[in-house]
Structures are given as C-alpha cells and as structure tokens.
Amino acid sequence: MHFYEHLQTELTRIKTDNLYRDFKVLSSKPEAYVEYKGNKVLQMSSNNYLGLAGDLRITEAVIKAVEKYGMGSTGSRLISGTHKLHIELEEKLAELKETQKAIVFSTGYAANIGAISALLTEKDAVYSDELNHASIIDGIKLAGTNKFIYKHCDTQDLERLLEENHKKYRFNVIITDSVFSMDGDIAPLKEIVNLKEKYNAVLFLDEAHAFGIYGEKGQGLAHELELNHKIDIQMGTLSKAAGSEGGYICGKSELIDYLKNKSRSFIFSTAPSIPAIAASIKAVEIIGNDYDLRKRLWKNIKYFKTGLNKIVITSDGNKTVERGNLFGQQSQIDCHVGASRLLAMTNEAPKSAIFCIKFDDIEKTLQISQELLEKHHIMASCIRPPTVKTPRIRLCTMALHTKQDLDYVLEKLSLFHN
Ligand SMILES: Cc1ncc(COP(=O)(O)O)c(C=O)c1O
C-alpha cells in the first residue's frame, strides 16, 4: 500500500469510529469566557485552574523581561541557553517546594520522559498506577526498565507486586500522579508512602494537576498531606495552575545534579524561552502568596460538586462513585472521589478541580459535548480513547468562574437528564 493511502485509510477508520480529533480554535485571552467561532463561550475545559494564564501581573512581568532580555534562550541549558532567569525560577521552585534543588524542563512531558529514562535501567523496576499520565508511560518505555502496572489507586495490588518483585531489582521506584488528569481522583498517598518505606522503594510523584491547588502555599498534594519530605522525586508542571509552560523536578541536590547531566530531554533541547520563564517566576510567586485565588477555586470546586450531586440521581452512601442516568443513559459522575481513603481522612467530598461524566458510548458523549458547545456555548471537552478507555465529558472549575457561571453549566447539564 502506498504510504499516503495508508494514512488516509487510517484516518477514515478513526473517523468511522468517532475517534477523529481536531482543534477548537480560540481567539481571545484565556479567561472564564473565551471566543470560539465568533461566540463568547464559557470555558469549562481548561487547566488554567487559578486563572493565571491571563493574569495581568504575569503579562506585565513577561513584557518587562522580554524588553530587557529578548525572546529566545538560544541554546540548550548546558551550552549557551542558561539565563539567570532559569536559575531564579529553579531557586524559587526549590524554596516553595522545600527541597534542596529544582530543575526546569521545557514541558511537563519532557520532565517526565527525561527524568524517568535517566533514572531507571534494566536493573531496576517501576511500579506504575494504570491511569498514570502518558508522559510517565512513555518515560518508562524509553527507560527500558522492568515495569509492573498496579490497579488504579489500589495499594493492595501495589503491595502484591512489590512483595513479589522487589528483591529482584537494584531500585524499586513507585510512580503515581497525585491528581489523575482524566478522572480527577487522588492517589492514596499516605498508604503509598507507607509501602515505599516498607519496601525501601523510591517514590516519584507527578503533581501536574495539584501544583498551585493543594498545600498552604500551593506546593501540591504532598504538602497538603504533610508527606512532602517522604517523596524522593517531586515532579510538576508550570502549564496548568501556573498558567505558563514548562515542567519541573524538585528533590535532593544529587538527584537534580544527576538529571542535569543525564536527562536527554533536558540536555538535547533548547532551554525554555525568556517569556515562559518570566511568566513562571511570577506565577510561582503568586501561587506562594495569593491565598485568595486558591480560596476562590476551592469555593467553586465545592459549589460545583454540590450542584452536580443534586443532578446525579443516586448516591449509595459510603460508596465513592455515584451512579445515575444523567444524559439518558448509564453514566457515572466520578467527581474525582475515587480517593476513598483520602475522603475518609479529610471527611470532605470535593477533592480536585477536575470533574468527569463517563459514558459507555463515544458517539453520545461527542454529541453532548457538541451540543453544550454549539447550542449552550459551554466548552466541555469530550475525552475519548485512546486518551482514556471510557469516553467522558471532562469539566474543570477555575477560580475565574462565578457562581452564575457554574449555575448555568449545572442548569444546562440537567437538561440532558431524563
Ligand atoms: C499528570 C500529568 N503529567 C504530566 C503532564 C505533562 O505536562 P505538560 O503539559 O506541561 O507537558 C500532564 C499534562 O497534561 C499531566 O496531566
């Protein structure tokens, strides 16, 4: 078969399966309402949890930095690309995260693949949650290490795998997201830390969707649970709550110096640009000091969760997943409460800014997402395989939303109820 014929056949198959994806092009600032096809649309799909992506304080800091230092970093970090702003950002991150050092990559994806592939070899083993982010999965593939995938948030399964295998390998590394990006639930971190200690393992925590949101100063879930000193490798991204772009790893000096010398996505890639770094510096400063923003986000998370509970039909008491027939078919609103253990600890229902409504039918999920967008002007993304196994509408609350915004979404969601 001709090469392009093959591509066309594959594209046709993807389209037939309702899996073809394309851009939704926006033409405004990243605020609560964005412009899409000439319409003002309520943004419920953004990872801009604190609204920092369009924050004026950051815009001003970026303009000043660009005027003074220009745009491009002009080289990789170890050749000519390290500007004093890179160092300032790394120092600020290490200070906020209370670690000895930090290292910044151009994206969170680069941080995960770069760190995992540098740290693990065929002599080692990784124990990875089955719903970990693609960048972790790809990092593991690249490392060529021995891998054991444990059932989602299932510490019994993790312990079974550690028990069976830990003696065979030089290092045993447990890797988990702290907040799972497509489900919004939370890793049972306390139990994972206990297992790390019991089996003398290393713990790698991806705080991509937790940075800026948990912890007194927004450091992440590990700080919220006062477990940060037990996490060996604290990874996060500057592209979500921080509203900029870039990824980081925080930890002990040996870890960071090792990554600086061994991580290929760090070494063989141009250093992040001046505007991205200047934005991140300001964002880290705001995250550490602006308690109000976080409060607003949490108020919205709680309000939205309560509203969703009202339109989801049955709640089976202690169970963490509520089931109903919202949207006229079997659906689940996970509302990120998969973390039953954490719930038990805090006795508090809403646990992340990510809410998902799952369906067993891709076409129906797509249709609902499209109707929300075209008819009701709500951007509520449809997440489909291969990103996830079960299709879903993924909704994110932001500090920028007002009560009226959330009420509007709840009202429109309830229209699908039968
Ligand atoms: C859990 C998790 N880790 C890592 C990443 C990658 O971060 P970035 O978008 O900064 O490349 C993401 C992004 O979606 C994520 O959700």
Description:
This protein has helices at 3-16, 56-69, 77-81, 84-97, 108-119, 134-143, 155-165, 189-198, 221-224, 253-262, 264-267, 274-289, 291-311, 340-346, 362-374, 403-415, and strands spanning 33-36, 39-43, 101-105, 125-129, 146-150, 172-177, 202-206, 233-237, 247-251, 322-324, 331-333, 354-358, 378-379, 381-383, 392-396. It is of the alpha/beta class. It has two domains: 18-47 and 290-415, Alpha-Beta Complex (Aspartate Aminotransferase, domain 1); 56-289, 3-Layer(aba) Sandwich (Aspartate Aminotransferase, domain 2). Strands 3-9-8-7-6-4-5 form a seven-stranded mixed beta sheet, sandwiched between helices. The chain has a five-stranded antiparallel beta sheet with strand order 10-11-12-15-14, with helices on one face. A three-stranded mixed beta sheet has the order 1-2-13. Strand 10 and strand 11 form a beta hairpin. The radius of gyration is 21 Å and the shape is globular. Mean pLDDT is 91; it is low at 313-325 and 334-349. Pyridoxal-5'-phosphate binds next to helix 5. The site of pyridoxal-5'-phosphate has 14 residues, from helix 5.
Task: Summarize the model shown.
By secondary structure, the protein is α/β, with parallel strands linked by helices. Helix content is 43%, strand content 16%. The protein folds into 2 domains: 18-47 and 290-415, Aspartate Aminotransferase, domain 1, CATH 3.90.1150.10; 56-289, Type I PLP-dependent aspartate aminotransferase-like (Major domain) (Aspartate Aminotransferase, domain 2), CATH 3.40.640.10.
